[in-house]
Amino acid sequence: MATSSTPPECIIHVSNEDLHSNLASPRDFESWSVLLRAARLKKHKPLLMVAEDLEDDTIPPVHYHLKCRKLFTLKRDLEKLEERDLENREEDIKRRSLRPVTLPSSSTVFDKVCIFCPPGKHSKYIKGSNTREHLVQCLELKADARVREIARQRQDQRILAVVSRELVAAEAWYHKSCYRQYTNEKSIPAKLESPNEDPNEDDYQHAETYAFSILAMYIRDELFTSPKVVKLTDLTHVLATYMHSSGVAVLKESTKKHLRRKLEREFGDMLHMTPDDKGKILVYPNTLNTSDLAKENQQLKKDLDSLRGQSTQVSEILKKASVHLRSSIKGAENKKIWPFLPSSLNESTTKAPAEVTQFLFALLTGDLEPKNPSQRTQMLVDSFSQDLVYAVSAGTQIPITKEPRMESSTPRR
């Protein structure tokens, strides 16, 4: 039984040709690359979606009119778009120059060479042919994350330095075969996959180097992105955390001692260090704006003055409340009666001053006069108030409800 299928149509239809007739497809990878370049410059979603799901080294089955392709890839239009894109990028660089810059070099993008190939050996031929393998640009965040993770597993210092920049934002390039080979977990040495096995001296040095590279990435990602002042001891703690994850239980004193020197060698003038009033080293990036520091300092002074004012106000309130409670207790008329007589029990002699009980209710519940206090709260207020009256009056006054229990009780045998 015959099945109906949707006829192919021109994916970049920009002419008056019939949508489904006289269609062509990319004849080779170079032809597809030119089309894809135009799609990226023009932000052509259909083609970009096709490229996103494309397997390595394959040419998609897209169709188009030759006239549409000619108009779509017109060199003059593409050059104008590139110029506009370059101008926008330069404006973006100017804006970024006013903000913290996390990239360690002066360039905002990578050179168009394979990041995996050894330096100076960037030309690579397709296996079994004399055709050079084309470079592809890193466009997916998952590829960035994959390379970063494998570099950490391999403890590859060169690639770790590369991935300290975001590969997508910095427009990294690589050969697909190099990417596949580098991210193949089977090629990772077993020694690096198991860093938690009994570390010897060589393992310690390896773990220290690896942890320092991660610390450098942390500084670029955190300290340069959000400029602030941190203690060198905090960075030492971060380094120790990374080394612990590699199986090193205790850091050597030399590691802590030489951290400052290594940071200065790694970052140079990009990172400043200065001692505080207690001799502790403070670290801050050169992107920390002095005007921001001045504003922050002024705000801290205001907050400190406000706290001092609040402290003074609280002290005055406490002093006034204490004097008032003391006066209330001293002015009470229920003097201590002894010997105790049942006829002495009445409401006036068994209650503490109202101010004292209100203070205790507020202290325990946050309410001066709670409507339905719990039995436990009521018992605590009664007990505390009686003790306060006894202590403030130096024993001359005491609510009688507590004294008979205290003086008539006999120890159990």
Would you kindly provide a written description of the structure presented here, covering whatever features stand out?
The structure is a single chain. The chain has 413 residues and is mainly alpha-helical. It has 4 domains: 29-97, no CATH class; 101-191, no CATH class; 194-290, Arc Repressor Mutant, subunit A (Orthogonal Bundle); 329-408, no CATH class. It has helices at residues 29-42, 45-52, 66-72, 75-97, 141-154, 157-162, 176-182, 190-193, 201-223, 232-245, 253-257, 259-267, 290-330, 347-350, 354-365, 375-392, 403-408, and strands spanning 135-137, 173-175, 230-231, 271-275, 281-285. α9 packs across α10 (232-245) and α15 crosses α16. The chain is elongated, with a radius of gyration of 39 Å. The chain starts with 28 loop residues before the first helix and ends in a 5-residue tail after the last helix. The model is unreliable at 96-107, 191-199 and 400-413 (pLDDT under 50).
CATH class bucket of the largest domain: Mainly Alpha
Q: State mean pLDDT (0 to 100 scale).
A: 76
- Per CATH, the architecture of the largest domain is Orthogonal Bundle
Please give the domain count. 4
Taken in chain order, the helices and strands follow as HHHHEHHEHHHEHHHEEHHHHH
Radius of gyration: 39 Å
Beta-strand share of residues: under 5%
Distance between the termini: 105 Å
Helix count equals 17
- Biggest sheet architecture: 3 strands, antiparallel
Low-confidence stretches: 96-107, 191-199, 400-413
Number of strands: 5
Give the oligomeric state: single chain
Secondary-structure content class: mainly alpha
Main-sheet strand order equals 3-5-4
Q: Roughly what percent helix?
A: 40-55%
Named CATH topology of the largest domain: Arc Repressor Mutant, subunit A
